[in-house]
Structure formats: structure tokens, C-alpha cells
Protein 1
Amino acid sequence: MIGFIFKRFIQSFIVMFLVALLAFTMFNFLGDPVNQMVGIDTTAADREALRDRLGLNDPLLVQFGRFVSNAVQFEFGQSYQHKRAVSGLILDRLPATLELSMIAAIFTLVVGVPMGVYTGLHRDSLLSKIFMTISLVGVSLPTFLIGILLIFVFSVQLQWLPSFGRGEVIDFGFWSTGLLTATGWKAIIMPAVTLGLFQMTLIMRLVRSEMLEVLRSDYIKFARARGLASRAINFGHALKNTLVPVITIAGLQLGSLIAFAIITETVFQWPGMGLLFLQAIQVVDIPIMAAYLMLIAFFFVMINMIVDLLYYVVDPRLRVDATS
Amino acid sequence: MTLLKIDDLKVEFPGRHDTFVAVENIQLELEPGQIYGLVGESGAGKSTIGNAVIDLLEPPGRVAAGHIALDGTAIENLPYEKMRSIRGRRIGMIFQDPLTSLNPLYTVEYQLVETIQTHLKLSEVEAAARAIELLDQVGIPEPEVRVKHYPHQFSGGMRQRVVIALALCGEPELIIADEPTTALDVSIQAQILDLIRSLCKQRQVGMVIITHDMGVIADITDNVAVMYHGKIVEKGPTAKILSTPEHPYTKSLISAVPRADLRLNRFPMVDYIEGPEPTRSSFDVSTHWLGKARDFSASDGGALVRVESLSIKFVTQRSILPSRNKLFTAVDNVSFEIRDGETFGLVGESGSGKSTIARSIAGLYRPASGSIHFAGGNLTAIKDEKQLRPYRQQMQMIFQDPFSSLNSRMRVLDIVAEPIRFHKLASSRAEVVEIVEDLLEHVGLGRAAAKRFPHEFSGGQRQRISIARALATRPRFLICDEPTSALDVSIQAQILNLLKDLQDELGLTMLFISHDLPVIRQMCDRVAVMRHGKICEIAETEQLFEEPGHEYTRHLLDLMPKLENLSREGLDVADEDAARQSQ
């Protein structure tokens, strides 16, 4: 097991290194950063001085080394557009995105798993068929459309929920949260539902098909033959056996919730990293783009590691060391 | 009081168009402490009766008529919760496959305690103590330690003991065992049957054993009912049914059990169901396609296959450094020869390395050391895949599972034609079709089979397709890895007879792997007995059975179910053969 974790660490390291390489090449091949920073009336000498100051005249390898060592210290330089440290900008925006993703993920699991279990157990009931139809809608409608529809119904027509922003935010210095105020909660409902709907239907369908599979297995039949209660069979024995594939998918989905919050954040003007990233693209603000890329890659790698470790918790067959 | 009384039971599965009647007119009575056997071939409806008693019929199956009474009270068609209080508490059930009967994610203790607490009013601590007690009673050593283990940490036989312990949790009066030993080795089977027998006597539990194995029936049942096509054709005390069967199906079924005591020329057929053997045209090798290019050069000293100090190792636990990988030695320094034209048997329990040897001869595994010589060439020394092809063409394999060994998306024509096309044995497409149809006819399937898909065929027919595919390269050496263990005894007889006929006609050499000693005795000229990756003994078949040299061979022979009192009546032709053989 320790060997396994060690291997995963090395793999993660390689992934991060490659992403860093990719992020670094953006600086050199996506236009000249100096042109982005100065006006057209700057003299060639001033430009050259700026290049020197920014270290852009150093050999590529040296520049890359500097980039990596800065990245490790969570230091990505100055934003061309905002003229502020990128790390500070990201730290400002990170809580909003993480909160949104977490609430969306919780919504996904809390609604998706029970719906999957229900449709797996009662595959022919009317409610199951309704769930399956809704899930089809959830899979096929694009995120922005769902967001706009929600805004139209709940903000414009019913006027229950705000159509943009985070609501009131309480600031702890390093972290700003909207989860402690009523307006904050109101503001997060629609973006979270929009963001999580697709993943929810995916989880639901996955749990359903896994449940159908497990319910056919011999050990479930044997559990019935032993006279165990339906609750114990369905939730104790069947559901736990569906968890391994569900954990895999849910973990990957959490990563993409964070990474692809961009569209939802745009629709709802949610002040998160996605919005920051989108604005950065418009003005070719490369330090922000590079930092965003690195950060998302880091999240994915971490989530994957955690998922792999969760396998060990769920499935005793993987704990080879414990074998007698 | 009669423990279980089944009266005129009828179970049906309503379908969209018509209703399938699984069993009908079933009458059965069982007293406490008795073991009742239900025997028959697959599809006879044995398991349906067991599932009906415990009310676990697969939907949409239902009890359409008749009564099931447990201790005098009717239990058929009870509401779910009411039936649930009977399941496990009054009726226990044991399933066939111990590897899949236990939930892999929970410890044995969790599963036992959960079941005990469902049925008996015991505290957690008392239930845990009871769990250990039960494991002890079913013969699991160190129950205090083992109870904390997960199912995958137990061997097959031990898992079946755990399954039995689970069935005993609610102290039931009746246990239904559905093929309880089919998935187990013969030595484990003997232990489990012993355990079942003693539990029945000690606890005065009534038991219904569902099996296809006459050996199991003869070994432990008091009464037996023979089932055929959803009906009981004959029932009565086991000794009487086995020694003087009256119904032609029973006679036929009993006579088809391969004999361990005598070698016959052919396997007796269950002619009651199957009718006479399917007609297959025999052919003249000198003119037939299969006979072409058969002027094989003489092999070294009459040996077609020579295996020299072969060892095969598998990595069980990978390490970062290849030198620190943990290895499992599946085959350990094994040497033997297969002579040209003989059938060489490999026998042993599961995990003894039989199949591993077969696969390494076929080139599916790379040996760790040692060499394999075939038809004069050293296969282990040839590194170039292209140079191996002529050797590969001469050896073909037939696998155990007829369902997974054929690609279900390909037509039979393409399945059989694939090796012909690969080895470029035919010049035109029309010729390929002609050869395939001819082969299918020879294995007794008929030409029309070529256009169909594998799922349209039964297990026995699929095995015939596998044989046709193996013949398609014009091989001289067939590796048969448990070719009939997944088949019913009547189908087994057909397939083995077919193999014997083909061998006679084509002069094939065969490596025949089986765990079934009677089948080995009927099929093989010489036998190697394997245990833990080593060969214990190689001997002529007759000598091995009459005067086993190695202790382990004697042990295996002792474990064979004793069938001396089986009727061999209705076996006139075979008896004559036997008489001729024994002279």
C-alpha cells in the first residue's frame, strides 16, 4: 500500500510537471507579454529595460526553473490587466468557486444517489419513469440554457431568488463565505443546481445500473434467503457494493465541477475563478491563465489521489497487506 | 409430523405470449433429520422447487397450484414480511458458488452477527460469541481469528463452510442446498458432504439437496427424486432407485455416469432424451481435406510433445524493483512426454497447475525456465512469432466454458473460418465455406449451422463448434482443458465420444485435462497426477487406477464417490464392451 501511494505521488508529480511546462510555454508563445503591459508610445529602450526586469531575456531553462519554483510557492507574478499579484486575485476568488462546487457536489450526491437507488429498486414504478425522463432532460440540456431558464422562472417571474452575485459575504480575511447569510444561501441555490444537474443525472444513472447489477448477484439472493430485512439488504449490502464505481465517477466529476464552473459563473455573474479566467482570456492575461491551469490540475491530481485511497477504505480485497 | 410436504406443486413463468411451466405435479415429503436428493440435468426444474419452497423464485415466476407445507402449515404465497420471518429462521439455504455467495465488503463476523440478530434476540456480544461457535461447528480452525476476516481471505471450501454457518444462524428446521459442492474439488466436496451429513443428524435438520451429480446422491441422501422436464419421473429410497431403477430415464441417466471401475470403449449415451447419437459422416483421411498435408515428420523417439523441467511463475505482488516482486510458482520443475497418437491425461485439484501447463504448451504463458519441444522443434527457443506459426497450426485448444470461448458477435462460419484464413489453408472464399460446412457436418451439427450465431446453440452444441474450430487448422495435437466439466452428463458422453471418434479417424494426439477421475479413465492412455504444481506420478491409466503408486493418487481415488451399487442395467452394449476389455 505504501508502495502504491508512493507510485501515485510520482505519477502526480509528473502530471504537475507537464502542466507546468504547458503553462510556461503560454508565456513565450501567446504573444509578447511586454506588448500587453505597456502603451504604444513606450520607447524601445524602455521596453528592453522592462524585459530585463521581468527576466524575459534569460535563457528559457532559467525562466522555466524560476516559474516552477515560484509556482511551488504559489507565486504567479503580476496580472497584466489588474496590476496585482495573481496569487492574491485567485485567493480572492477561490472561496466563491469552491463553495459553489462543494454545494453543487453535495446536491449531486444527496439527490442523485437516493434517486439512483430508488429507480434501481423499483425499476417499473411510475416515479422511476418520471425520474428517468427528468434525467434525460438534465443530460441533454446545455448548462447555460438551464441557468437562463432558472433565472427566468425564479428571478424574473417569481422573484424569489437573485439572478446574479453571491449575496452578502462574511470575510474572515483568508476566506470569504456566503454560507453564513440568508442572502448568500439564496444566491447559491440556482448556480449550484445548474452546475450540479448534469452530474446528478449521471450519478443517478450510474447508481441505478450498478444497483440493478448488484441486486442480481448471488450474495444478495443469499442475504434474502437468510431472511435479512429489506433495508439491510438494499442499503447495507447492495448500496455499499455499488460504491466503488460511484466514487470514481463522483471524484472525477468534482474535479470538473470546479474546472467547468466557468459557464455557470458567467451566466450568474458569480465572482469566482471561472469568471476571472474568462476575463483573463479576453485580454490575454497570461499569468492568470497559467495560474488557473496549474491550480485546476492540482485539484484534479489531489482528488484522484483521494479517490484511490477511498477504494482501500471501501473494498477490503484491495488491502493486500491484510491478507493472511 | 412431516417436516416438508409438497403437494401437487406447479410453478410457472408467465411470458408475453405463453406461460412456461417450470415444474408440475411435484409430490415430496421430508422427515426431520433426513436428506432428500433432487437429481436431474440442467433445465429439469430442480432449483425451481428449492426456490419455490423458500419463495425466492425469479420474477415473474409464481406458484400456480399446489401446496407447500412446513411442519403442517401452508407457506406458499405468503405475504413478503411473513415469508421473511420464515427465511433463515425456519428454512435455510445454501447456494452453489461459495465465491459469490458472500458479500465481499463485510467481514464474516459482520455477516454472521447481522443474520443472528435478525432471527434471535441476542445482544451484539452474545451474537459475536455465537458466530464464533458456529464457525467452530462447521469446522473452521481458529474461529476467533478467522471471524474477523473478509470472505476473500478464505479458500473455496472454507467459504462454503462459512455459507453453511450463515444458513445455520437462525437454527432452521429445513435446509435447502442447491448444488452445494458442484464448485468444489473432490476432496473438499467429501469434507463438505461429511459436514452436511453430521449436521443433519446432530440437529435433526431436514435437508433437500439439489444436484446433478449421482455420486453426491449416492453418498449422502436417504431418498431421491429423479426429475426430467419439470416432472418427477421416479422417487423412493436412494439405495433402491440407484440399484433397481424402473423409469427408462433414470436407467439411462445412471448408466451415463462415467465409470471409474472399468474402461469402456465408448461412453454410454443417455438415449432416453437424446435419442440415438447424432449421425455424423465418417470420412476417409487419405482423400479428405483434413487429411491433406498430414505427412508429419517423425518426432523425437515417438514423443510428439516433450516438456523438460518446466517452471512457470506468476507475480502476485508487484514491487517497484522487479527483483523484489513476490512470485507464485504455479508449475514447478515438471517434465513429461506425450507420445504420438496417445491421449495424455492431466488430473489434479484446482490450483494444481494443470491448465497452466496446457496454456504454456499452447504458448499463452511464457515459462520461467525449462523447455517445451513439439514435433522436433524447441518452442521455448523460438523468439520470432512468424517461425512459431507452423507449430501453432499443428496444435489447437478446446476450452472449458462453451459460453465464453466463442465470440458471440461472429457467425459460426466466421468463427470456424478464422483459423483457415489466418493460416491461408484455402485458396478461395468458396473453398473456405465448403471446408467449414464440411467440418460442421463432421462434428454433428449439420451444414446449416454455419449461418447462425453462437447464442442459438446449447452448451453441448457450442462445444462441437469449438471442436470444429480446433480442427480447422488441420492439427495433429489437441489440448482439451476440461472440455466437458460445464456440461450435463448426457452431453458429456456425446462430446467425449466425438473426441474419441475424431482421434481414431485423424490419428490425433491429445492432452486431456480434467479433475474428473472416471472421465480420465475412459479417455486417457497415460495419466499424470498433479498437486501443487508438481507431478506426483505418471502411469498407464489402467495401472494408475488398479495399483496407484503415489499416496496422493490413492487419496484422490479414495475420495471418488462410491457408485458400486449403481445399476448398470440398460447398458447391454457397453457391458459387452466392458467384458471384452477386461479379458
Note: Residues 210 and 491 of chain B are 19 Å apart (CA to CA).
Protein 2
Amino acid sequence: MNKITPLPLADWIDAFVSWLTQAEFIFGPLTDIVGYLISGFEWLFGIFPPWLLLLIMTGLTFWFAGRKIGLTVFVLLGLLLIWNLGYWEDMVLTLAIVLTAGLISIVIGVPVGIWMSRSPVVEGAVKPVLDFMQTMPAFVYLIPAVAFFGIGMVPGVVASVIFAMPPTIRFTNLGIRQVPTEIIEASEAFGSTGNQKLFKVQLPMAKTTIMAGINQTIMLALSMVVIASMIGADGLGTAVYFAVGRNDVGGGFEAGLAIVIVAIILDRLTQGIGASKRK
Amino acid sequence: MAKIEVENLTKVFGKRPNRAINLLEQGKSKDEILKETGCTVGVNRTNFSVEAGEIFVIMGLSGSGKSTLVRLLNRLIDPTEGSVWVDGDDLARMDDKGLRKVRREKMSMVFQQFGLFPFRTILDNVAYGLEIQGLEDQDKKKKAEDALQLVGLGGYGNMYPDELSGGMQQRVGLARALAADTDILLMDEAFSALDPLIRKEMQDELLELQERMQKTIVFITHDLDEALRLGDRITIMKDGRIVQIGTPEDILQHPADDYVAQFVEDVDRSKVFTAEAVMKRPETLTIDKDGPRVALQRMKKEGISSLYVTNKDRTLLGIVHADEVSELVEQGSEDMRSVLHENVPAVQKDTVVKEMIELLTYKNTPVAVVDEDNRLVGIVVRGSVMALLSGKEVEAVE
């Protein structure tokens, strides 16, 4: 084997990426848009003083996650702890990154999922891409992200989107395909157009499944925050990353705990929104 | 003109339908074609027509192609070959827009598992067709409520499908189809998922609704009893082919082949056949015209012991018995009315035989059959009922 020259795969990819980076007219506006989204969320969370934001988040959890008293108390105490430990600003940044990544994933992922559900060809083409996106170690995305978007929050979000979007696409596809044939036939038999079928029947039927996908996406995006902090995406991830660098067990644990608390809140919230609200 | 006219309608599932069709035309069987081309023949060159206002039942066992056939009628499945003419337009050659128009305005469908939308209230489910038709909210609500009322679910509009029993859910399915106000109703095994008692109740209700609404109904079922109960005409399918089309009595009396004969063998014939099918022409007396001597002579000639008595326009008055009439003769009286028994067992022409058996069991006299105006049209004797139940031809009885 040693006699055979290794394929210059790395060179090809480098060449491809550097060719892509020429396309400033694409990546410039993209960077701007993602940047606006992040600062939009930051601004939104910034209008409220921490105590009010804390109450709002607690209230939302209570409202959407099935009005469970225990969970609500836990959320309240958890948020108070984050505030007390001094991670409030970091938490707001992390939320901004995660929600931006989640929003972009939904905006791209749901339509792609719908497209897949309508065409076996598209499904066949997209599935391996999704497998690739999910199995490629997440660190690898950091490199082109930096190449295209520089250092900072934006490439962090982009890497998170690539890593976190597949569940939304998969679950949207799955949810629509799982709608019982008879219900689709019922909708068609009354003369629905394709769009009427999609919006009046398929999407409402698939809602719970799609929300499960979105929940997964948000959780995956959150799991990227530490990795993304390596390329300058600030927030709780940075705190963990620095603690690792300083061998600061206590500090690392504090920041990690804050991430866990945020994860639980986001998880229960998105699950709650997905669950049927009637009755 | 027929409401639905089906011409050479064929559906082949698989990758090489054209080859399969060639083979079909050469008269190859379903199995041979599957072996040679890998294609499954769903529906094999069927021809039939459905008249406006009739209940047309398509019956067959699973795999006979009946569910495919009904889906070809509104093109939920695209036919491989053939035509479906609805009011003179061929559905098989329509563009999407035309097809949607037909589905909205001309035919609606009821499904085996109900096909209700679980996230919509009952009222919104029923209003679905109207919503697609683009009706104003007010009209929509009104019509949906009327339809719910019609199936006896007036107060349930705000509930959700999973809060209702199976029978009630299928009423909602029926209401949804009725609300769309189409002439044609396609019912795919609509009652098959229901308990026997509920099923019978729904059958009765469907018949009752049909009396009032006069829809053209294509009803799919695998249950022969259901087919016989509901159908004005029945089509029996096997392996995608139509084996026989006929009225229920037709199919029981003249099965087209062994398959049908085997099928109908165990049917309770007394539930299918009506008085009309087993009655014979009665010997009668006309009151005020025929005296006791004529009566005795007629009974003697026919070898019977009683006679039905009518007036001149054949309205049934009662019955006289031989012993009493001969007493009358001995007394020298002409007053037939004095021996007339007015309280006689009588049934309508469309009464099924089952309901007459008791009448025949405890009395020796035949049962009188009358029309709507109480005019005597025939009598039923034990012998012809027994002949019918034993599966023999009844026509010999005159």
C-alpha cells in the first residue's frame, strides 16, 4: 500500500473550500443575516432586567409544559442559581446562539422535510447527506465555518445548524409519511389541492412528530455550544472551555450546570409546545 | 342515462403495466401475469353502470379488487386503462383541476376506518368538504350542523373524534360526505369496522336516509348479508373481475357460476326474499256477487278449505271457511257476510319471508298479500315458503 501515492483528498477539499470562499457575495450577506438574528435575540432578552426575564421564562415553562408545579419551582431555582453564580450574561448569549440555530434549522429543515416526503428521489438523495452531517465529527465543521464566516458568533451558529438540523428534516419527512393513508385519501376525495392537503391535513397531523424533531435540533444545538466556543462563539460554552484550559474543575462544573439547566428548560418548553394542547 | 358508466376499467400495479394488459387480453390469469411480469392485476376490464338513486353494492372477499375499484371511481388510484363516465365526463382523462371539481361537486366518500381528522372538532370534520368547496363561514357552519343533525349527532359538534365511539365516528364520516351535498356517495366498507349490532343499526339508518335523499350510492362490502340487505343491485367480484351483476334475488336464484353459488349457499334466504317472490295467484270470491254455492263449488274444485273474499276492486275483506259456508247453504241463506272472518293475516308485497313464517306456522290458512291500497294481490302457502328455503326454484308455483 505504501507504494501507491495517497489520494490528495485534503488538497482537493482545500482547493474547493478556498474556491468557495471567493463567493463573498454569498457569504457576506449570509454572515449579516445570521448576525442580525443573533443580535435580535440578544436585544430581545436584553430589554428585560434579569429578574423579569427570569419570571417570564419560569411563567412560560409553567404555561407550556403542562402546568407542573415541581418543574416550575425547579426552573425558578435553577435560573436564580445561574443569576447568582454570575452566568446570566453568558446564558443570554447561549440562548441567542441556540435559538438562532434552531430558527434557521426550522426555516430550512421543515421545507426540506416536506420536499422529501413528497418525492422518493429527493428522499433518496437527502438521506445520505443527513447521515453525513450527523456522523462527521462536529469539530470538523468549525474549520470551513471559520473559512467562510470568520471568527465569532456567526460561524458558531453555522456549525451548530449543520450539526443540529438533520432531526428536524428527518422528523418532518417521517411525520408526513406517517399520516394514515385513509386520512390522506379523505382529504383528496373531497377535492383538496396539494397545498390544502399539506396545510389542512398533513402538517397538523405531523405536528407532534415535527416538534419532536425540533426539540432534538435544539438539544443538539445546545450540545454544540462548548465546541462552538473554540471559534469565538461566546456564552456558557466559553466559560466551560476556559475552565478546561485553566484546569478549573469548580468553574467548569458551574458553567456546565448552567448549561444543563438551560437544556432542561428548552427541552420541556419545546416538548410542551409539541404536545397537543386540547383538553 | 346512467349516473356512473364504467367501461373496460383496468388497474395493473407494477412496473410494466402495458405488458400485463397485453397478457390480460390474451386471456392469461392473474397468477400467470404476476409470474411473467411481476405486475399485480387489481381490477380486470370491468364494465358496469350505476343508475341515479340506486344503492349499487360491490361485493367480494379481500383481494378481489373491490377497494381498488371504488378508488378508481374517484381516481384516488389512476386507472391503467378504461373510462369512468360521470354525468357524461370521463374522469380517467380529466386534468387535475377538472378532477378536483368533480370530487368537490359530484362525489364524496366514506371510509372503513372513518378517515376523520383527529385534530379537528366534529363540526370542523364535517365542514371539511365545504371548506374545500370555498363556502362562507356562516353557510359552512349551518350546513355542517344540518348534516350532523341528520345523522343524529346534533349536540356533538365541539367534541373530537377520539371522544366518540366507533359507530358515532362513522356517523361523522357519513355526515361529512352528506354535508358536501354531492349526488354520488362512495362507501368503502363503511360499516365493516363496527360491531354487528351497531352495523345493523347503521344499515337501517342508511336505508332510511336513502329513502329521503335518493343519492347514488356505491357501497363496497365483503359481507354478503350486508350486500343483500342494502343493495338494489349487487356486483360480485373475484380476482379483479366482475363475476355477476344482479338484484339480490337474481343472485340467489340464478348464481352465475360455482363461485357465486358457493358464496350464496349459506345465506338466510328468508331474509332476502319477499312475499312477492313466493306468492301465487289467489282464488277469490267477490262479495255481493258470488254466493255460498259458488264458494263451495270453487273450494271443491281447487281442493281447498277456505277462500279470501274481496269486493269488486279487489280490496281484501276477509276469509270464509268451507264448513261455515256449507252450514249457510243448509240454512238456505245467501248472507255471505255472516260467515266472513274479517281479521285475517295479511302482509305487504315487500315483507320478507322471515316475517311471515310465524303467521304460516300456527294457522292452516294461507297468508294474504296486499298492496298499498289493501288490494289482494296474492297468497302465500306453506309449500312455496318451504320450497324457497330449501333452495329450490319457486317459479313452479302458480
Note: The radius of gyration of chain B is 27 Å.
